[in-house]
Amino acid sequence: MPLLSLNLRAAILSVSLLIVGLLIWEAAIPAQKAVGELTEYELLTGGGQPKAGVPPPSQVMAKAWEQLSDPFYDAGPNDKGIGIQIGYSIYRVLVGYALAAAIAIPLGFLIGMSPLAYKALNPFIQVLRPISPLAWMPLALFVIQDSEASAIFVIFICSIWPMLINTAFGVAGVREDWVNVARTHELNPLRTAFSVILPAAAPTILTGMRISIGIAWLVIVAAEMLVGGTGIGYYVWNEWNNLDLTSVIFSILMIGLVGMVLDAALGFVQRAVSYVE
After folding, report:
1. Are residues 73 and 177 both part of a single domain?
2. Are residues 9 and 101 in the same domain?
3. Which pLDDT value is given to residue 133?
4. In terms of domains, do 25 and 156 share one?
5. Is 223 a member of any domain?
6. Residue range 47-63: average pLDDT?
7. What is the CATH number for 219?
8. pLDDT(199) > 90
9. Are residues 120 and 222 located together in one domain of the fold?
10. Are residues 17 and 61 part of one domain?
11. Please, which pLDDT band fits residue 159 given cuts at 50, 70 and 90?
């Protein structure tokens, strides 16, 4: 009951802060003044056009209602619904993320279980890990010569390091006594890895996977701004080019919500996987 009471109070506080923030935002945006009679020069130079400014939350909510009422419409290459754009981005993230997991987790096991592999591969990891994922984009575009595959490659290269490092750390941290017991029972290395090491290292591995999915979602937005075509990153850039700040703010909020859902999904799996000694 105390936990439920705490959650309820936290929810009330969060909603209150949201309402206050929206009211301050709405009040801070000056109303557009009516345009009076213009001279011929002002008419020719567009002086009567309203200046672009940050829209109030009421306009953003109206835009959200407009976009979310039909999120999957397709009116051409540069006019697709927000649902389609997010779908393209999620697809690229999941493909690159899955490829990274397929390599990072087995390689992390090898590094964690073998001091020789750790010493041999650690210099490569330390050199490649700090490189910004977007620094790979020009090379990927030149070598792969496909914007879709290049964006997936960038997701792959940014997702692999947290999973690789956390897997190696989790595997190396498994108590030596448990491995020795497996050897006493004459378990082969593969069975030892799956029945002893994997259950003990799973929480740490999932922590790395959760970090990676957040980084992947951050990077895909920037990558799509560079390669263009489709995706939520391209949608943001395209609306900025149209000087539609209302759509830009709406898309920023959608990016945050989708990122929260992806993190919550991995968080749910992480909480479900627990290891009791």
Report:
1. yes
2. no
3. 81
4. no
5. yes
6. 73
7. 1.10.3720.10
8. no
9. yes
10. no
11. very high
Task: Give the Å distances, CA to CA, from 118 to 161, 164, 228.
Answer: 14, 11, 39
Rounded Cα gap, residues 89 and 95, in angstroms? 10
Contacts of 160 (CB under 8 A, 6+ apart): 100, 103, 104, 212
Q: Which range of residues forms the domain containing residue 21?
A: 1-29
Question: How confident is the model at residue 34, as a pLDDT?
Answer: 41
**Per-residue pLDDT tens digits for 57-71:** 888 898 889 888 888
Task: With 0.90 as the threshold, say if the pTM is over it.
Answer: no
Does residue 15 share a domain with residue 115?
A: no
Give me the helices (H) in 29-175, please: 40-44, 57-69, 82-113, 115-128, 137-144, 147-172
Given pLDDT bands bounded at 50, 70 and 90, which one contains residue 86? very high
Domain count, the chain: 2
- Let me know: does 266 contact 209? Beta carbons within 8 Å: yes
Residue 82 three-state SS: helix
Based on C-alpha coordinates, what's the Rg of the chain? 25
* Minimum mean pLDDT range among 62-66, 100-104, 196-200, 211-215: 196-200
Place of tokens 């990927």: 140
Q: Residue 272 has which token pair?
A: 């479900």
Residue 95's CB: how many other CB atoms inside 10 A?
16
Pair 109, 12 in one domain: no
CB distance 268 to 100 below 8 Å: no
pLDDT given for residue 187 in this prediction = 64
Q: Which of 148, 146, 145, 131 is nearest to 234 (CA)?
A: 148
Q: Which residue has the tokens 């984009």?
A: 137
- At residue 74, φ and ψ (nearest 5 deg) are -140, 105
